[in-house]
Design brief:
The chain is an alpha+beta fold. It has one domain. The protein has two helices and eight strands, in the order ββββββββαα. The strands form four sheets. Strands 1-4 form a two-stranded antiparallel sheet. It has a two-stranded antiparallel sheet with strand order 2-3. A two-stranded antiparallel ribbon has the order 5-6. Strand 7 and strand 8 form a beta hairpin. It is globular. It starts with 7 loop residues before the first strand and ends in a 17-residue tail after the last helix. The mean pLDDT is about 85.
Length: about 130
């Protein structure tokens, strides 16, 4: 699992690289879907810091709106939203044509990782 703006469920594989224990890629994770707040996980992290999530727009989103402002998205958020629209099996390898298409859409909407951008048409809208 992975958290931040959205709670994500991640599929990982063993790595063949020495010193790297597991790997994943954008096509192998999906945000947790929800209908109500109770569908979203609550995570206790280091020093008993609680990461709370609530259901907004059908996805589990972080309740800390000062840090995770829903109207300010970055490339990693847009990746989550664009891949959310597709079954994981269809994007399980970076060699699949759909992955190339999704990545091109993301690159056009968000040219770099540091600049806020919008979720493009065809991707989940937070």
């Amino acid at each position: 699992m992975c958290w931040g703006s959205f709670f994500k469920i991640v599929s990982v594989c063993d790595s063949a690289v020495e010193g790297v224990f597991w790997v994943s890629e954008p096509g192998k994770y999906r945000p947790a879907a929800c209908d109500v707040d109770e569908d979203c996980p609550q995570i206790t992290w280091y020093a008993d810091e609680l990461r709370n999530y609530e259901c907004r727009s059908g996805l589990c989103q972080n309740v800390d709106l000062d840090v995770y402002q829903p109207d300010i998205l970055y490339r990693t958020d847009v990746m989550t939203l664009c891949y959310a629209m597709h079954p994981r099996l269809d994007t399980a390898s970076w060699t699949y044509p759909l992955v190339t298409e999704i990545d091109a859409t993301i690159a056009q909407a968000c040219p770099d990782r540091e600049t806020p951008c919008a979720s493009p048409a065809g991707c989940w809208q937070p």
